[in-house]
Design goal:
Chain lengths: 341, 247
C-alpha cells in the first residue's frame, strides 16, 4: 500500500512539474500568436472598456463566433434605424466596440461600421479605425487606412484634419500592390490641400498638386539609383498632367508659370511640349494642335525636311550623325549597356 | 495490464458509438454548419467565416459533451455495482480509470473527427474552395482538447456524485478555458498548467484558421501538455479511487 502511495505521489509530482513546464512553453508561443493575450499579460489596456474586455475573455475560445453573432445583430440593428442620429449614435458605438473587443481582426466591422459611424461621430470612427491600422494582423489591408484618410478629409470642416489624413493615405497606397488611380489621386489632393494651408504662394489646388508632385520627384531623384521608388506611380506622366491643369487654371499667374518652367527644365527635359499649353507634339509638327501656338520643330531630316522615323531618313537616306544625338540619350545608352554586361 | 486496459477502453468507446442519438446529433451539426451558408446577406458577405466558426464551436461543444459523459458513466457504474464486478476480475483500479479515459478519448476523436470531416466536405461544396491546412489545425486543436477534458471528468467522477460531477466538470472546463482571467492574479500564476489545467492552450482555433500563425510545434506542445496533464489528473484520481470503498 505504501509502495503504491509512493508511486502515485511520484507520478503526480513528476507529471505536475512536466505539465507546468510544457504549459509555460506553450503559453509563451501562445502569446506570440495572440497579441491581445500578450497585451493583457503585460497589463496594457486593450481595445475596449474593461467590461467588454472582460467579456471577451470569459468566452473560452468562442470569441470569434460571438463576434459573428454580434456582427449580425449590428447589421440587424442598423437596418432597423432610419439613420444614425444623436439618439442612437451611442448604441451604434457600443455595439461596434463590442464586436471589435471580441475580434480585433474583424476588418469589415472596422470599415463598414466605422464608415457608418463617421457621419455622426467622425472622431470616434477614426479612433476605432486607427486601432485597426496598428493591428499587425490587418497590415495587408489598404481599405482601412484609406477610409481613415477619407473620414479625416471629408467629415471635418475646412480641411482641418487633412494633415492628419496624409500618413493614413500613404499607408493605404503602400499597402496596395497595384494602387488604384483614385487612391493615389486622393493622397495627392490631400497633400496639396495641406500644402496650401502652409504655403500661401500656392495660388490654386492645381498649383499645389504640381508642387507636391515635383517635391515627390525631387525626393525620389535624390535617392540612389537602385533605391529610387516613389509611392506615386507614373510620376512623370502625372507631373505633365499637373502642369497642364495648373496652366489651364491660372494661365497668366507668374507664380504658376515660374513653377511650370522649373518643372519643365528639371523633369520634362526629354519631352517636346508646347510652351503655352504644355501639350506634347509629334515629330515634324510646326504648330501645337491644342492651342495653335508655333512650336520648335524636331525629328526632321536636315537634308530633305521629311519626318525621320529612325536612324536613316526614309525619303533621302540621310544618316543622323552620332554627334547629333543628345548627351542625355548617350548617357542612358551607356548605363543600359553596362547593365546588360 | 495493457490488454485489460484496452478491453475497458474498447468497451467504453464501442458503447458510446453504439448510441444512435450520437449520429442523429452529428447530422444536426452538419445541418447547422450548412445553414451558415444562407447567412450571406444577414452577415454582409461574412458567411464563409461564419461557417468556419460554427463548425469550430459545434465541434468544441461536442468534445466537451463527450468528456462530460464520463462523469455520468463512472459514478453510475459505481452506483450500480458494475465497477465492483469488473474489479473482481484481475483488473486494477488504475487500469479501470485509464481504460475509461482512453475509451472516451477514442470516441471523442471519432465523433469530433467525423464532424470536422463533414465540415470540410460542406465547406468545399459550398464555396468551391480547397480546405486549408490552417482549418485542419483548428479542428486538430479541438480533437486534442478531448484528452485533458476527459481526464478532468474522470478525476471528478471518482469522488463526486453523478449529476454534481458533470456540473463540476463543466464548470472547471469553462473556467480553465479562460486562463487569462485566472492568470491576471499573480498568486495563481505558478499553479497554472500543473495543478490548475490550462485549456486556454486549445483556444487558438480562430487564430489557427484566420491568421495561419499556428505552428506545428505549438500544436505538438499543446498535445504533449494534454497527455502529461491527463497523467497528472489520472494519478490523483487513481490515488483517491484506491482509497474508495466500493459496494
Amino acid at each position: 500500500m505504501k509502495k503504491s502511495l509512493f508511486l502515485h505521489l511520484l507520478v503526480i509530482v513528476m507529471s505536475g512539474v512536466i505539465a507546468t513546464t510544457l504549459a509555460k512553453l506553450a503559453f509563451k508561443q501562445e502569446m506570440d500568436i495572440d497579441p491581445i493575450l500578450k497585451s493583457r499579460m503585460e497589463g496594457k489596456k486593450i481595445d475596449a472598456k474593461s467590461d467588454k474586455d472582460a467579456l471577451s475573455f470569459v468566452l473560452g475560445g468562442f470569441q470569434k463566433f460571438a463576434s459573428d453573432v454580434e456582427w449580425m445583430n449590428f447589421i440587424n440593428y442598423s437596418g432597423s434605424q432610419n439613420c444614425i442620429n444623436d439618439d442612437n449614435v451611442k448604441e451604434f458605438t457600443r455595439r461596434l466596440e463590442k464586436i471589435i473587443a471580441l475580434d480585433p481582426n474583424f476588418a469589415k466591422a472596422y470599415s463598414v461600421g466605422a464608415l457608418m459611424l463617421s457621419d455622426k461621430d467622425p472622431r470616434k470612427a477614426v479612433e476605432l479605425m486607427k486601432k485597426a491600422c496598428d493591428n499587425e494582423k490587418l497590415n495587408s489591408n489598404w481599405e482601412i487606412p484609406f477610409y481613415v484618410g477619407f473620414i479625416l478629409t471629408q467629415r471635418f470642416p475646412n480641411d482641418e484634419c487633412v494633415g492628419e489624413a496624409i500618413p493614413f493615405l500613404e499607408k493605404a497606397v503602400m499597402r496596395s500592390k497595384n494602387p488604384e488611380n483614385y487612391l493615389v489621386n486622393y493622397l495627392i489632393r490631400a497633400r496639396a490641400k495641406d500644402a496650401r494651408k502652409r504655403d500661401k504662394n500656392l495660388v490654386s489646388v492645381e498649383h499645389a498638386i504640381l508642387k507636391i508632385l515635383f517635391d515627390e520627384w525631387r525626393n525620389t531623384s535624390s535617392q540612389k539609383m537602385e533605391m529610387r521608388q516613389s509611392i506615386v506611380p507614373n510620376l512623370t506622366e502625372r507631373i505633365l498632367i499637373a502642369c497642364q491643369k495648373a496652366i489651364n487654371a491660372d494661365p497668366n499667374n507668374d507664380k504658376v508659370l515660374k513653377s511650370v518652367k522649373e518643372v519643365k527644365e528639371k523633369v520634362l527635359t526629354s519631352q517636346h511640349l508646347c510652351e503655352k499649353c504644355f501639350v506634347q507634339y509629334g515629330a515634324g509638327e510646326k504648330f501645337c494642335n491644342s492651342c495653335g501656338m508655333k512650336v520648335e520643330v524636331f525629328g526632321i531630316c536636315p537634308k530633305c525636311s521629311a519626318v525621320m522615323k529612325g536612324k536613316f531618313c526614309s525619303t533621302c537616306g540621310f544618316t543622323v550623325p552620332v554627334a547629333a544625338i543628345p548627351e542625355k540619350v548617350k548617357e542612358v545608352k551607356e548605363v543600359k549597356e553596362k547593365a546588360t554586361k | 495490464m495493457i490488454n485489460e486496459t484496452m478491453a475497458i477502453a474498447s468497451g467504453t468507446w464501442r458503447r458510446m458509438l453504439r448510441v444512435r442519438a450520437v449520429y442523429f446529433l452529428i447530422v444536426c451539426v452538419f445541418i447547422l454548419i450548412g445553414s451558415a451558408y444562407n447567412y450571406n446577406i444577414l452577415s454582409m458577405g461574412e458567411h464563409k467565416p461564419l461557417m468556419i466558426d460554427v463548425s469550430l464551436v459545434l465541434n468544441t461543444v461536442a468534445a466537451i459533451l463527450i468528456a462530460i459523459s464520463v462523469s455520468f458513466e463512472i459514478p453510475r457504474e459505481l452506483r450500480e455495482g458494475v465497477a465492483s464486478t469488473l474489479l473482481t476480475k484481475p483488473l486494477g483500479r488504475t487500469e479501470y480509470l485509464v481504460g475509461k479515459l482512453v475509451g472516451t478519448s477514442i470516441a471523442g476523436f471519432i465523433i469530433c473527427g467525423l464532424i470536422a470531416l463533414g465540415f470540410f466536405v460542406i465547406f468545399s461544396f459550398s464555396f468551391n474552395e480547397q480546405v486549408l491546412t490552417s482549418m485542419i489545425q483548428g479542428h486538430l486543436l479541438v480533437l486534442f482538447s478531448v484528452i485533458p477534458m476527459t481526464a478532468l471528468a474522470v478525476l471528478f467522477s471518482v469522488f463526486i456524485p453523478e449529476m454534481l460531477a458533470a456540473l463540476v466538470t463543466a464548470a472547471v472546463i469553462w473556467f480553465t478555458h479562460n486562463s487569462p482571467v485566472l492568470l491576471s492574479s499573480s498568486a495563481t500564476k505558478f499553479l497554472y498548467g500543473g495543478i490548475v489545467p490550462d485549456l486556454n492552450l486549445f483556444n487558438l482555433k480562430a487564430q489557427a484558421v484566420y491568421t495561419s500563425s499556428i505552428s506545428w510545434a505549438y500544436l505538438g506542445t499543446a498535445f504533449a501538455w494534454g497527455i502529461v496533464y491527463s497523467v497528472f489528473a489520472l494519478a490523483i484520481a487513481s490515488l483517491i479511487f484506491s482509497y474508495k470503498d466500493l459496494k
